[in-house]
């Protein structure tokens, strides 16, 4: 059962694509955030969102493939088809020459780009949530890309779910785990938490399984960036079907 702020064990297991035994083990080992309410164990939804997103970002190759398969099945009733990017990448959503120079300025510039799309209803709330999420743990990944997203998914922020992609003119130090600078940013704006986690998994898999990052870095313009993103997603889905 799920409330606005809390999840029980069964709901967390379903949300994370884990068994109840997996969640119980993580509680026992204090690997997952939880609270005790008398004899009951409950999970604060906002904390689980952060934990789940960070877990996806850290999944190794085969476990990411497995998670992506499960999240694809879990979101099938929400989507017209398995492809996310043709609908989420709307006109003006790609910036091949951002002038951002710092971690703070790249977040502000991504929000400004999202605001221009017409799908962002509360820019101030989004920026505050992005800053809060990065304060928990950086969304930068090895390989020079980052997947910034709100600390929690709030439907009132957006008209629809969408994606913004920015490529700064200069590399940004964004606290990546490998200590290297970041040169590609994917701002994920989803109305639904399940779609949010699925989008995280999809983009992470595209970065692992295709030459997307190299191609994005070398694309001549926004249209070229969009083409390589669409092609990378198609490649991942084609590979999934033959596994």
Descriptive notes:
Helices cover 50% and strands 13% of the residues. It has 243 residues and is an alpha/beta fold. The protein has two domains: 6-57, Multidrug-efflux Transporter Regulator, Chain: A, Domain 2, CATH 1.10.1660.10; 70-242, Mannitol-specific EII, Chain A. Strands 4-7-8-6-5 form a five-stranded mixed sheet, with helices on both faces. β5 and β6 (145-146) form a beta hairpin. The longest helix is centred in the last third of the chain and has 21 residues, at 222-242.
Describe what is shown at a glance.
By secondary structure, the chain is of the alpha/beta class. The protein has 2 domains: 6-57, Multidrug-efflux Transporter Regulator, Chain: A, Domain 2, CATH 1.10.1660; 70-242, Mannitol-specific EII, Chain A.
